[in-house]
Amino acid sequence: MAVMFALAAVPACKAANAKAIKLEQCEQDALAQSETLKKLKAQEAAAAANTNAAAAYYYPRISLNAQGSWVSEVPELKTGAASIKYGDNWNYSIGPSAEYQLYNKERRHSEAAAKKILDSKRQEIAFAEKQIILQTRKAYFRLQQNLQRLYLLSGQLKVARQQHAEIKASLAAGTKTRLDELMAKKQVNSAKALMSEARVNLSAALHEIFRLTSNDYGINPAYPLDFRLKGLDAESEATDLIEADSIEKTLSIMSQAASKEFDSESPRLAAMESMKGYYEYLAEQYRSALQPKLTLSAGAYLQYPNGPIRESVFIGKAGASFSLPLFEGGRNSSQAKAKKYEAVAASHDKQEARQNLLLLFKISKDSLHGLSNEEKILKVMINDAEEEAKLAYEAYKAGSVTFLETDNANLRLLESRMALSDLEIRKLNSLATIDSLGK
C-alpha cells in the first residue's frame, strides 16, 4: 500500500446544508455594523454643524424687535386752564434691525479651526474603514487557517485509520505484535484529538467574525466542520458545515497589494495634520481677541408716540460700535501660547505615528521575500516527506523498521503541510497590512 496523505480521497463535494461565509460579505457587514464607524460619523456630523455655525458669523444678523410699556405719569405743560401732555401713557415700537460685524478676526479664525476639526474627523473615518477591513481580513484568515488545518488533519486521520486496520488484521494473522497495533491506534487517536482542537479554534474564529460583522450568517459555531469533510468523522456530528473562500483564491486576490508603496498621506497622518492646524488656528483666534472689533447696525421702526407728539411714526436708525481690549490680565495671550504648544505636540505625534506606520509597512513588505523563499523550501520538504512516508511504511511491512519510523514519517509530512498552510496565512496577513497602509 502506498502510504501518504490521501487528501484527494477526502470527500470534497458541497454539502447541501453547508453554510457559506465569504470574505467580501464579511468586509461589507463589518463596515456597515461597526460601532466605531457609527461614532465617528456622528462626530463628523457634529463637526459639520459646528463649521456651519462658525461660518454664520459672515452674515448679518437680522431680527424683529418689538417693545411696549405703560407709565403712570406723563409730563405735561399747563397754561392757565389748558394743559399739554408731552407723550402718552402707552409707548410701543416694532420693526426689523440688522447687525453686521465688519471686522472680527477672532470669528474668522474660529471658522478655520472648525473646518480643521471637520477635516480631521473625515480622515479618521477613512482610516477607521481601513482598520476595520484589516481586522476583518485577519479574523477571516484565522478562519481559513483552521479550516485548512481540519482538512489536512483529515488526511492524516484517513491514513492512520487505514494503517491501523491493516496492522490489526496482521495482528490477528500473527505477523504483527500488539505493540504495533497500539502504536497505530495511538496515531488514530492523536489525529482525532488534533482535529477536535482545530474545531474548537475554528469556533473561536467564527465568534470573532460574528463580533466584527454583527452577523452570524445562520451558523451554529459550537462544534463546526469544514464542508469538504462531511461524513468523515461519524463520532462527532458537526453543528454546522462551513464553506469559506479557499486560501489559494484569497492569495490570488490579495497578491495585487504586493506592488503598493507606503502612503505618506495616510488618512491617519492627514487627520493628525488637521489637528495640528486646528490648534494653530485656535492660537490665532486667542491672539485675535486682542484686536479691535467693528460692528455696524441699522433698523426701521414703527414708533408711538413720536416724542411728545401722540402719533405713530416710522423711524430709521443706523449706528456703529468699536471695541478694543486694553487689559485682560494676559488671559488670551496665555491661551494662545498654550494652543501653540499643543500644535507642536500634535506635530510630534504625527511624526511618531508616521514612523510606526512606516515600520509596520516595511516589516510586512520585507517579509514577503523571506516567506516566498521559505515557501519554496517547504514545498521541497513536502515532496520529500511524502516519499519518506511511503518508503517508511513499505519498510515497516517488510519488517526492516519498527512502526515508530512510520509514525514519525507521517508526522513529519503533516507538520510540513501545516507549516506551508500557516506560511500562506502569514503571507496573507502581510499583504493585508501592505494593502491597508499602502497606495
Description:
It is a single chain. The chain has 439 residues and is an alpha/beta fold. It has one domain: Outer membrane efflux proteins (OEP) (Up-down Bundle). The chain is built from 8 helices and 9 strands. The protein is elongated. The protein starts with 18 loop residues before the first strand and ends with a helix. Residues 1-16 have low confidence and may be disordered.
Topology:
Layout: E1 19-21, H1 23-33, H2 35-55, E2 61-70, E3 76-79, E4 82-85, E5 90-103, H3 105-173, H4 178-213, E6 225-226, E7 241-244, H5 247-254, H6 267-288, E8 293-304, E9 313-323, H7 331-398, H8 403-437
Parallel strand pairs: 1-7, 6-7
Antiparallel strand pairs: 2-5, 3-4, 5-8, 8-9
Structure class = alpha/beta
**Residue share in helices?**
55-70%
Shape: elongated
**Series of secondary-structure elements, N-terminal to C-terminal:** EHHEEEEHHEEHHEEHH
What is the CATH superfamily label? Outer membrane efflux proteins (OEP)
Number of helices: 8
Query: In terms of per-residue confidence, which ranges show pLDDT below 50 for 5 or more consecutive residues?
Result: 1-16
CATH topology: Outer membrane efflux proteins (OEP)
Number of strands: 9
- Rg from alpha-carbon coordinates: 40 Å
Overall pLDDT score? 88
**Total of domains:** 1
Q: Based on the structure given, which CATH architecture is correct?
A: Up-down Bundle
Strand content: 5-15%
